[in-house]
Amino acid sequence: MLNVPTSFSSKSPKATILVIEDNADQWFIIHWALLQRFPEVEAIWMQEPTQAMMYLEACMQDIRELPKLILLDLYLPLRQHGWNLLELIKAHSVFREIPVVILSQSNDPEDIAESYTLRSNSYIVKPSGYEKWLACIASFRHYWWESVTLPKFS
C-alpha cells in the first residue's frame, strides 16, 4: 500500500522527503527509522520511477510542496531504472535543485561512480539491521538538516 495522499499534496506543516524504494520491507525499516530519528519530516513513499515522476510533476502546481530531499534506491529493481530516474530528475529545470541521495545495498565501485557521474548528491550503502539504520538516519539528519543549507522553493 502506498503512502500517497490522493491529491499528491501532503498539506502538512512538515517538510517532505520523497523515498523511492521498490521493496516494501526496506520501506518499512526506512520509514520507522525516519520517524524515530528524523521526526521533523514527512516521508512520502513511491515504489517505482513513474509514480515518483508523477508525484514531482503534481508538486509543480505549488512548488513549495516539492520534497526537500529525495532518497532513491538504485535498484528499482534494476540499477538502470534508478540511474534513468536520477537522470530525469537532474535534467529537469526545477527538480535538479532537490538533493538526491542514492540508497543501495551495492558497494560496487561502478554503481557508486556512475551515480555521482549522473549527479547524485550522496551515496549511502544501506545498513544491515535496524539499529544500524537508526544510526544512519541520525547521521543523515545531522548532515542534511543541521549542517547543509538546502534550496528554498517559493
UniProtKB/TrEMBL annotation:
Q: Which SMART domains would you find in this protein's record?
A: REC
**SUPFAM superfamilies for the chain:** CheY-like
Q: Which UniProt keywords apply?
A: Phosphoprotein
Q: Which GO terms describe its biological process?
A: phosphorelay signal transduction system
- Response regulatory domain location is 16-141
Q: Positions modified as 4-aspartylphosphate?
A: D73
Keyword hit for Lyase? no
Q: What is this protein called?
A: Response regulator
Annotated organism of origin: Spirosoma telluris
Q: What is the lineage of its organism?
A: Bacteria, Pseudomonadati, Bacteroidota, Cytophagia, Cytophagales
